[in-house]
Amino acid sequence: MQKSRRMLVGMAAGFALLACSQRSEPTPEQAADVANFVRPAGDAPSASSSGAQPGSPPRSTSNVDPCTFFTKAELESAVGYPLGPAKPGRGEPSCRFPNPTRGTVTVRAGDLVTPAQFDSLKLYTGTDLEPVSGVGDKAFLLGARIYVLSGNRQLMVNLDKHDLTPEVRATLMSLGKLGVPRLK
User: Which one has a higher pLDDT value, 173 or 3?
Assistant: First the structure.
């Protein structure tokens, strides 16, 4: 009895330690992309009316291919280091350009959203959003990520393994400005 109680307490402590040591940030594979929280315009709130199966990703309403939205050369020029080949997202309009040591660049482009839906992102992120001007109709930074709304299309660019330094800010703003005309 005493031995099983100690084992149970030890297991509980182990699980607690494991839970506390988990990353608080999503990994790139988890899409490091808060844009998933915004329901694209035209997607119905229920799975049955949208045609999607429960638990499946929402139907893409993107009008562009995120793997060709920016050329690999444009991204490499912007970030200043080589990137691997494009890797399309699974069931979402995103694409990842990896660099194992410097970080992955993720592009999500063309989601159909309304300005109100774009603004609703603030509900999920709190006060960490930094509005920026001069990029699209609306734009903001969240860490090393920029979200841009142009008309009713959204662009997100994420620089994994980066803090929001002035250089990273300039890179994100540059990519945001380059992408706006391509969202039309």
Answer: 173
